[in-house]
Design a protein that fits this description.
single chain; alpha+beta; 4-stranded mixed β-sheet; 48% helix; elongated
Length: 516
């Protein structure tokens, strides 16, 4: 196993084998010694060479190879050339050879030294080896073709990077990046600066500068408009994404009355009536939430990236979200298809019994708390309240009591059961799973406060309504607990507005009236 060292070169970090590090270190030291006598320009040449070395070494790093070896360093040195070759070999290829081979080296960059707005035309001129003036004229003519020129220019401005380093400028001009060309380019730039500082711009340069100032001013206006449009798009993404996210949260948690009568929203728990069992329901809801949530997140994230100019990319995250969205779509479609032949129905059934209070002048309605002294846990599922008893592993819920006039001279008690999400062939069996107990002795009718069902049958969302039919002229009396079983209107009428212990008699109109 070879020893590795971490180095920093050209703004990048690398792990490098020990023998490769020694070879690279000797090469860089020879460069620094050679260019030390050229002052600031020599230092810049060395910096540009280090950046080019870093680019070459970085291209050798792969997923399975994280350290630079001696072969990589030798290849980089061979590409750039040795100092000895650079000093003693003065042979240079003629212009025809450079033109012939330039297509092997050229890269498309925006030219930072020949530009009016963004350097796109200058970069294209270097890439295709034509005068940038003709390219600029083409953009102007295309501008009158419904703004196509401006759109193409803006896209290239965004997509094409600017040639910042000496190596990138050489690639833009189609020249090989080695010691000779790097030194030549740096010296040319320093010569331009010295000439400009000594003699100042000539008349042609002053004219060009005036034209440049006009174009740059126009460019600044275009950039400002473009940035405003981009920022506006980012704000739109954020607003739309936030609205949809708020709507999704309200739909999930049932805040459908937030907007008053303007929009009632979608109450997700109401969808239980479309599914024959809880597994289908939860799978469909989870899939639907993922299908809606991922595009919302994409909108909000896209708006944030646009507004804050975030350039980072997360290909793994994007692949994960896209895969999750596709899987959720497949799951949602599968659940709907499977659920179609098992479409649920609502079922109801009732059982009526005659009550004979014998010789007593009135019937007393009493309530038995059939959950008393039991270990009970309270649950709320889809807007329904359940009381779970560990003692018999059953779910309990309140039964309700309504008072009506009897069609004959006898008392009748009707137990009416209702369930949801039942299959047509099994609806009677499901109704039998809902159990309710009551008893009558002498003149006392004792009603259980709660009905119950097995805990795994909660998806039926059962309900039990009791209807007590009182003959005309007969009297009844509510105990305090019985008032809690009455509907809200009847409770207020018979238990709150009248002192407790009062007797009630059924009138011909079908309403109870207070009596002694």
């Amino acid at each position: 196993m070879k020893k590795t060292t971490q180095i920093h070169i050209g703004g990048r970090h690398f792990f490098i084998d020990e023998d490769a590090f020694q070879k690279l270190n000797l090469y860089l030291e020879s460069l620094k010694r050679h260019f030390a006598g050229e002052g600031e320009s020599g230092s810049e040449v060395v910096d540009d060479i280090e950046q080019r070395i870093a680019e070459l070494l970085e291209s050798k790093i792969t997923q399975g190879k994280q350290a630079v070896n001696l072969s990589d360093v030798n290849e980089a040195i061979s590409t750039l050339g040795n100092v000895e070759d650079f000093v003693f070999n003065d042979d240079r290829p003629d212009q025809q050879e450079i033109y012939t081979n330039r297509r092997d080296y050229r890269r498309f960059y925006r030219d930072p030294d020949n530009y009016y707005i963004g350097g796109v035309a200058g970069g294209m001129g270097e890439y295709f080896d034509i005068d940038p003036m003709w390219i600029r004229l083409a953009f102007v003519l295309l501008f009158f073709a419904k703004g196509a020129g401006l759109l193409i220019y803006l896209i290239l401005w965004i997509v094409v990077p600017k040639a910042r380093t000496t190596a990138e400028k050489l690639q833009m001009r189609g020249k090989p990046v080695n010691l000779s060309t790097i030194k030549e380019t740096v010296n040319e730039e320093y010569e331009k600066v010295r000439t400009y500082q000594t003699t100042g711009p000539d008349s042609g340069e002053r004219t060009r500068n005036a034209v440049e100032n006009i174009f740059r001013a126009l460019g600044l206006v275009v950039v400002a408009i473009f940035k405003f449009i981009v920022a506006f798009i980012g704000v739109i993404f954020l607003v739309i994404g936030s609205i949809f996210l708020a709507g999704l949260i309200m739909a999930i948690f049932g805040f459908t009355g937030f907007f008053g009568h303007a929009w009632n929203g979608v109450y997700v728990p109401d969808a239980i009536n479309f599914f024959a069992n809880s597994g289908y329901y939860y799978a469909a809801v989870i899939a639907l939430i993922v299908l809606v949530l991922i595009p919302i997140i994409a909108l909000i994230y896209g708006g944030v990236k646009i507004l804050f100019n975030i350039k980072t990319k997360h290909p793994v995250l994007r692949a994960f979200l896209l895969t999750s969205w596709i899987l959720a779509l497949i799951l949602f479609g599968t659940v709907l298809i499977v659920n179609i032949p098992n479409s649920p129905i609502e079922a109801s059934g009732s059982n009526s019994s005659v009550i004979e209070p014998e010789k007593y002048p009135y019937l007393v309605i009493n309530v038995n708390d059939n959950l008393e002294d039991r270990s009970v846990t309270h649950y709320r599922v889809m807007g329904m309240r359940f009381n779970y008893s560990r003692w018999d592993e059953a779910l309990y819920d309140d039964a309700s009591l309504n008072i009506e006039r009897s069609p004959d001279k006898q008392f009748h008690l009707t137990v009416q059961k209702k369930i949801k999400n039942a299959q047509f062939n099994d609806s009677e069996d499901f109704l039998d799973e809902v159990r309710y107990n009551w008893d009558v002795k002498d003149s006392v009718l004792t009603l259980d406060k709660y009905f119950f069902t097995d805990d795994n049958d909660f998806w039926m969302f059962p309900r039990v309504d009791l209807i007590l039919k009182v003959p005309e002229g007969q009297k009844i009396k509510f105990n305090r607990d019985a008032c809690e079983m009455l509907t809200m209107d009847e409770r207020q009428k018979y238990c709150e507005e009248v002192p407790p212990g009062k007797k009630w008699m059924m009138s011909p109109e079908g309403a109870l009236i207070a009596t002694e």
